[in-house]
C-alpha cells in the first residue's frame, strides 16, 4: 500500500483552483512518472496517464478519473484603498469566508478576508452573514498601486489551510486539510497506478470539475473508454443533530467507501454497481451508499460522452467539503483504493452489458 | 527595539493561547520576558503579571502601564458523540466562527499526552445541502460543533471535560508593508508595545517607578485591571489597547487611520493632563499619532483603572487594527513600535512636578 497520507498531505497543500491546476498537475506528474507507460496533457490541462493491461487483447479500456481542481476565488477588482474584490470559483459558501486566510496568485501572496468588526455592525446587519459584496481581501497594500505590484485582476486564490493529522488511532486515523474534494480522489488514483491490471487503465486527473465537469468531458472524448469510475471526496454530513431533524447523513466518516446510486449528474450503471458490490464483499471491505440526488461528479460528464460510457462513482467521505478545511478518515481512503484496485482486477465485459 | 524586534516579540506572544481566565502560558512567557528588565516580577491572585522597574525618585512616584493579555475563546459546555458544544468567552463573532480551526485544551484523564492541545475544526453543513434561506442565517454559537476528528470512543473516556478551553487558531502571517495578520492582536500587540517600551526604558533615564502590568480577563469585563490597579495603587496609569483601524467599507468616522501612529484617546475616561503631555511628547520626538475621540466608555482597562481606589489619572494609547476579534486581525508593526516609543518617552519625561500640575488640567 503506498503512503496515501503523505501523498494526500502534499496534494492537499498544493494550489489548484479550477482553471489553475498546473501546480497540482506537476506534483502528480512527478509522482506517477515511473509507474505508467505514457502521459499526455490535453488542451484543457487534463493529465492523462496510460497503463496497458496484462490480459489478452482485445482488452477493456477503463478510465478512472479524479479532479485536480478545488474551489477558490478569483480577484475581480483592485480598489483604490488596496482592497481586493473577488468572486468564488466553484461552490463556496460565503458564510465561511469572513476572517479566513488565503494565498493569491502564482506568487502565493498571503491575504486575509476582511469585513468590518462585529462591534461596528449596524442593527440591520446584526445576525446576518456578511454578503460576498461586503467582503474583500487584504494583502496589506495601502493603495491600488501597491496591490497591483503583487496581484492582478484575474489572479486565483485558495484557502491557506495546511494539512494536519488529527488522530493517529489505527482504527480511526483522521486528518484535516483543504481540497480533500478531490485531492482524496487524486491520491487514490495515483495509488492505483502502482499496480498493472488485466484491463488497460487510463488514469485521468481532470481539471475544472468544480465549475461544471468541464475537463472530464473533453478527456472522456479523447480516451474513449469502455467504462469509467469517478473517484471523489464527497459530502459527509454526520454531525449529531436535534432529534426532530432528518438524521440520515449523506455518508458517515469511517464507514468505508461510499458508492453512489444516483446523484444530480448521473444514474450509476447497474453492472458497474454490481461489480463494486461483489468486489467489496469478496474483499471484505465495508461499504456505504451515498444518499441519492446530492452533488454531481465527473461521472456526470463522462457517461454522456460520445455514444455513452457506463460509469460509476466511488467516494471518500469528507466532512465540511468546500470549506477552508475538511476532515477525512484515512481508513476510508485506503479502502477506496483497495476496492477500486480489486474491481479493476475483476472487471469483465459482462459487467458492462445492460440487462 | 525596532519594527523587526517588535515583530519577533509579537510572533512569540501570539504563538500561545490565553483565553480569559486561563492566561497561564501567556503570563509565563511575559514574566520570563520582562524579568531581565524588571526590579521585581510578581503575579497577583487573579493572574495579572506585574513587573516593577524602580526609578530614581525618593519617595517613589508610580506609573502603571497596563495591557491585557487575555483573548477571546470558548468553553466546552457538552461532549456529544465525539463532538463538542461550546459557549463564547468574550465577544466571539459568530459570523467568522464557521470554517475555523481551533485548539482544544483537554483536562480529563489522558490529557497529559496533549500539552499543546488537540486540533479541531468548527465545520458546517456543506453548501450542497443548504436551503437558500439557511444561507441567510448566521449559525448561533451554541449551535456550532467542534470536531476533533477523534474516534467517538476516545471522548467517551472523559478526555475533554465540560469547562475545558477552546481557542481559535490564527497563525502569524506576514502581509505586505510590514503588516501582520494573526489572532489575538487584541491585545498582544499592546503587550508587545508595553514590553518594547520597557526595553526602551532600560536605555533611558526615568525617575518614576514603572509597573508594567499584563492584565487578565479584560474581554469578560476588565476584571484584571480592577485588582491590579488596586494592588499597584499608582499615581498615574497608561493603558495600551487596540482600536478600530481604518477599514475598507467602514465609515472613516468610526475608525482611526492605519500606519499613522498610535491613537491617543480623548474623552471623560482619560485625564486631559495626560492627553496633553502625550501629545507634547509625541510632537517633540516626531512620533506620528492620531487623536481618537472617546465620548464615553473606552471599552478598555482604562475604564476600570480610572475609578480604582480614590481615582487614578489615566491615559489611553491605542494601536489601530483591522478586523477586531477575528483570527486575521491586521496591524502595522510600525504602529506597535511607535506606541512603544511614545509610552517610553512619556514615562522618561515624568518628573516631580507633573503630578502637582494635573489638577489644573481637569
Task: Report on the architecture of this protein.
The complex is a heterodimer of chains A (355) and B (362). In chain A, strand 4 (72-78) and strand 5 form a beta hairpin. Chain A is α+β, with helices and mostly antiparallel strands and 355 residues long. Chain A is built from 8 helices and 17 strands. Chain A has 2 domains: 4-70 and 178-352, Aminopeptidase, CATH 3.40.630.10; 72-159, Beta Barrel (Elongation Factor Tu (Ef-tu), domain 3). In chain B, helix 7 links the parallel strand 14 (263-266) and strand 15 (290-293). The longest helix of chain B has 17 residues, at 185-201. By secondary structure, chain B is an alpha+beta fold. Chain B has helices spanning 3-14, 24-34, 94-97, 152-156, 185-201, 223-232, 272-285, 301-305, 333-348, 352-357, and strands spanning 40-43, 49-53, 62-68, 73-80, 83-89, 100-105, 118-122, 145-147, 165-168, 173-174, 179-182, 209-215, 236-244, 263-266, 290-293, 314-322, 329-332. In chain B, helix 7 (272-285) crosses helix 9. Helices cover 28% and strands 25% of the residues of chain B. Chain B has 2 domains: 3-71 and 183-361, Zn peptidases (Aminopeptidase), CATH 3.40.630; 73-168, Peptidase M42, domain 2 (Elongation Factor Tu (Ef-tu), domain 3, Beta Barrel). The chains are: A alpha+beta (355), B alpha+beta (362). Chains A and B meet through strand 7, strand 10 and strand 11 of A and strand 7 and strand 10 of B.
Determine the CATH topology of the largest domain in chain A: Aminopeptidase
Q: Report the portion of residues of chain B in β strands.
A: 25-35%
User: Which CATH top level class of the largest domain in chain A fits?
Assistant: Alpha Beta
Give the ordered list of helices and strands of chain A.
HHEEEEEEEEHEEEHEHEEHEHEEH
Number of strands of chain A: 17
| CATH architecture assignment name of the largest domain in chain B | 3-Layer(aba) Sandwich
Q: What structural class is derived from the secondary structure elements of chain A?
A: alpha+beta
Gyration radius from CA atoms of chain A, angstroms: 21 Å
Q: What is the approximate shape of chain B?
A: globular
Strand residues, percent of chain A: 25-35%
Work out the count of structural domains of chain A.
2
Q: How much helix is in the residues of chain B?
A: 25-40%
CATH class term of the largest domain in chain B: Alpha Beta
Helix run count of chain A: 8
Sheet with the most strands of chain B?
A: 11 strands, mixed
Chain pair with largest interface: A-B, 67 and 59 residues
What is CATH's topology name of the largest domain in chain B?
A: Aminopeptidase
List segments of chain B where confidence is low: pLDDT < 50 over at least 5 consecutive residues: none
Number of helices of chain B: 10
Based on secondary structure, the structural category of chain B is: alpha+beta
Amino acid at each position: 500500500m503506498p503512503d496515501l497520507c503523505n501523498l494526500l498531505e502534499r496534494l492537499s497543500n498544493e494550489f489548484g483552483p479550477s482553471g489553475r491546476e498546473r501546480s497540482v498537475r506537476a506534483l502528480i506528474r512527478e509522482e506517477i512518472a515511473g509507474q505508467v507507460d505514457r502521459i499526455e496533457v490535453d488542451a484543457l490541462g487534463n493529465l492523462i496517464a496510460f497503463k496497458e493491461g496484462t490480459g489478452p487483447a482485445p482488452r477493456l479500456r477503463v478510465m478512472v478519473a479524479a479532479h485536480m481542481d478545488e474551489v477558490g476565488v478569483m480577484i475581480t477588482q483592485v480598489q483604490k484603498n488596496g482592497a481586493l474584490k473577488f468572486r468564488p470559483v466553484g461552490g463556496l459558501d460565503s458564510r465561511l469566508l469572513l476572517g479566513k486566510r488565503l494565498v493569491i496568485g502564482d506568487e502565493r501572496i498571503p491575504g486575509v478576508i476582511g469585513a468590518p468588526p462585529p462591534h461596528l455592525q449596524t442593527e440591520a446587519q446584526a445576525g446576518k452573514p456578511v454578503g460576498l459584496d461586503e467582503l474583500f481581501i487584504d494583502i496589506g497594500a495601502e493603495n491600488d498601486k501597491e496591490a497591483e505590484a503583487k496581484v492582478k485582476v484575474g489572479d486565483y486564490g485558495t484557502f491557506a489551510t495546511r494539512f494536519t493529522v488529527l488522530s493517529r488511532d489505527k482504527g480511526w486515523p483522521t486528518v484535516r486539510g483543504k481540497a480533500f474534494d478531490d485531492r482524496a480522489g487524486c491520491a487514490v488514483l495515483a495509488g492505483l497506478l502502482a499496480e498493472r491490471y488485466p484491463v488497460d487503465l487510463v488514469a485521468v486527473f481532470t481539471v475544472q470539475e468544480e465549475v461544471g465537469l468541464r475537463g472530464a468531458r473533453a478527456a472522456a472524448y479523447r480516451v474513449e473508454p469502455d467504462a469509467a469510475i469517478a473517484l471523489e471526496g464527497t459530502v459527509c454530513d454526520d454531525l449529531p443533530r436535534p432529534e426532530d431533524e432528518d438524521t440520515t447523513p449523506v455518508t458517515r466518516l469511517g464507514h468505508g467507501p461510499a458508492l453512489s446510486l444516483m446523484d444530480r449528474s448521473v444514474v450509476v450503471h447497474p453492472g458497474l454497481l454490481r461489480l463494486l458490490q461483489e468486489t467489496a464483499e469478496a474483499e471484505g471491505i465495508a461499504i456505504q451508499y451515498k444518499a441519492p440526488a446530492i452533488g454531481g461528479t465527473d461521472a456526470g460528464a463522462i457517461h454522456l460522452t460520445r455514444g455513452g460510457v457506463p460509469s460509476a462513482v466511488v467516494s471518500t467521505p469528507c466532512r465540511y467539503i468546500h470549506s477552508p478545511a475538511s476532515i477525512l478518515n484515512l481508513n476510508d481512503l485506503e479502502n477506496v483504493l483497495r476496492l477500486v484496485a480489486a474491481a479493476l482486477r475483476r472487471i469483465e465485459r459482462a459487467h458492462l452489458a445492460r440487462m | 527595539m525596532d519594527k523587526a524586534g517588535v515583530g519577533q516579540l509579537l510572533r512569540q506572544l501570539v504563538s500561545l493561547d490565553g483565553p480569559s481566565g486561563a492566561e497561564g502560558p501567556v503570563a509565563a512567557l511575559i514574566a520570563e520576558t520582562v524579568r531581565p528588565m524588571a526590579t521585581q516580577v510578581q503575579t497577583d491572585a487573579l493572574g495579572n503579571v506585574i513587573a516593577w522597574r524602580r526609578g530614581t525618585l525618593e519617595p517613589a512616584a508610580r506609573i502603571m502601564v497596563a495591557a491585557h493579555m487575555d483573548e477571546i475563546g470558548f468553553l466546552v459546555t457538552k461532549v456529544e458523540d465525539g463532538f463538542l458544544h461550546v459557549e463564547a468567552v468574550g465577544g466571539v463573532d459568530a459570523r467568522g466562527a464557521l470554517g475555523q480551526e481551533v485548539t482544544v485544551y483537554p483536562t480529563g484523564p489522558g490529557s497529559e499526552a496533549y500539552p499543546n492541545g488537540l486540533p479541531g475544526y468548527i465545520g458546517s453543513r456543506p453548501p450542497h445541502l443548504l436551503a437558500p434561506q439557511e444561507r441567510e442565517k448566521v449559525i448561533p454559537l451554541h449551535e456550532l460543533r467542534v470536531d476533533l476528528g477523534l474516534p467517538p470512543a476516545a471522548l467517551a473516556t472523559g478526555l475533554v471535560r465540560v469547562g475545558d478551553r477552546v481557542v481559535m487558531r490564527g497563525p502569524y502571517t506576514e502581509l505586505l508593508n510590514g503588516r501582520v495578520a494573526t489572532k489575538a492582536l487584541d491585545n498582544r500587540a499592546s503587550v508587545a508595545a508595553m514590553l518594547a517600551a520597557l526595553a526602551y526604558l532600560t536605555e533611558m533615564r526615568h525617575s518614576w517607578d514603572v509597573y508594567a502590568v499584563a492584565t487578565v480577563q479584560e474581554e469578560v469585563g476588565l476584571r484584571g485591571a480592577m485588582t491590579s490597579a488596586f494592588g499597584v495603587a499608582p499615581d498615574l496609569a497608561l493603558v495600551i489597547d487596540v482600536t478600530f483601524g481604518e477599514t475598507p467599507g467602514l465609515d472613516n468616522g468610526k475608525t482611526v487611520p492605519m500606519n499613522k501612529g498610535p491613537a491617543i484617546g480623548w474623552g471623560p475616561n482619560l485625564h486631559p493632563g495626560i492627553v496633553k503631555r502625550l501629545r507634547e511628547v509625541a510632537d517633540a520626538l516626531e512620533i506620528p499619532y492620531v487623536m481618537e475621540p472617546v465620548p464615553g466608555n473606552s471599552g478598555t482597562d482604562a475604564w476600570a483603572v480610572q475609578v480604582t481606589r480614590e481615582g487614578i489619572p489615566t491615559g489611553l494609547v491605542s494601536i489601530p487594527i483591522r478586523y477586531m476579534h477575528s483570527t486575521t486581525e491586521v496591524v502595522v508593526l510600525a504602529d506597535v513600535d511607535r506606541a512603544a516609543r511614545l509610552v517610553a518617552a512619556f514615562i522618561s519625561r515624568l518628573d516631580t512636578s507633573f503630578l502637582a500640575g494635573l489638577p489644573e488640567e481637569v
